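The data are quoted verbatim here:
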Amino acid sequence: MTSLDSVLDKDGVRLTVDDAVATVTLTNPAKRNAQSPALWRALAEAGRALPGSVRVVVLCGEGKSFSAGLDRQAFAPEGFDGEPSFLDMARGPEAELDATIAEYQEAFTWWRRNDIVSIAAVQGHAIGAGFQLALACDLRIAAEDVQFAMRETSLGLVPDLTGTHPLVNLVGYARALEICATGRFVHAEEAERTGLANLVVPVDQLDVAGRDLAAALLAAPRDAVVETKALLSGALSRTYEEQRTAERAAQGRRLRDLAGLAD
């Protein structure tokens, strides 16, 4: 794959690849990278289009905001061009609504695949769907001006784009409930202190910090990172004894591989 090969550029999403690092960029800064069903389909397509050589994916947004959340046009009677409005979808059969939401969620699920490590580089507003997109990634670097907020509950909705699971895992049930139910802003200091952000940097250093972290993640052998990610991502759903067993199995695979005895 040639350096900075443009793999996809559509509907507010651009995917470029530079050897083992892919960058997914939200490209509608005039609307603060507001999200729509077309953007979600493009994000899902970006995940499917990743070359097998990619080990790290950096997610970022052009302009002053990472993503200000769902484009409110979704709730207008006319909806988006060529798309049903959310109000029209709500009037349809329940099974169809469920299937549509499941399709939207696909834009948020692939970031935690075991074969990649994903980094969200977040500046300015990351609200609602924008917050959930940042939460979809494995790691988050936040600029000092970041403002995370989960505003769905304030609008009479619930967060439904896969953000609730990582939010609770990161900050705990009580704080997650308070953040969602109040819709308040979480700023950089709190984000770093509570684990929402792995690192906070000045706004003008966000791109460099993302590149530096990507380079650090590439330093270890790929298979060891893949196995370690699988161990850690499954740890909360396993008992202590189950985790011990998983560690032994993973280490056995690594040792056999290093000895040239891989299956």
